[in-house]
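Hi C.,

You asked whether I'd gotten around to modeling the 212-residue construct. I have! Everything is below, sequence then structure, no commentary in between.
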Amino acid sequence: MGYSSVMIDGSSLPFEENVAKTKLVVALARRKKVSVEAELGALAGIEDFVSVASQDAHLTNPAQAKEFVRATKCDSLAIAIGTSHGSMKFKGKPHLDFKRLFDIKKAVSVPLVLHGASEIDEKMLTRAYKAGSTLKASHGVSDELLRKAIKLGICKVNTDTDLRIAFTAGIREGIMSNTSVWDPREILKPALSAMQEAATKRIKACGSRNKA
């Protein structure tokens, strides 16, 4: 279908099975010159329909990361250093294992990826609340933490929850401000605008402005 990059997430599997499945995907992707992002280490939270309980979440082991990349020949590696999927990312003060990130960066030569990297922007949350949302407050990966992670080797960050919150805020604001609207395209415009705001904010935080 034209995709130039795919991801295989075997992080919930035993190490050997994750390696085997990732190797298969890499072999298939190579035929089409498609790059492969793999994942090692589980994040607490819910992504799509896969739930990983907090007590079962495990951070990426640097030695395993080295062996995993060697064995699979993946093009990039998503690692677990303390983030989580969903809006409830941290219990208490946000913390990332930067020592672990440093060690993984030393152990592998492929670009590193950080999943669960949404900020959970307070201003956007407030907009959603005012528009009638009952989302629970949470703490995400701050700009400060994100910039430090990038400095230590993270090359790609995944931001999903921030976009969902922005979409929720935008669509609720739009409907409340214009109760006569019935065209879905018009209803979605404020949501699109809010998501663009959220994406722009994160692009600037990552130092990626004007680098597309």
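If it helps when you're writing up: The CA atoms of residues 131 and 172 lie 6 Å apart.

Thanks,
B.
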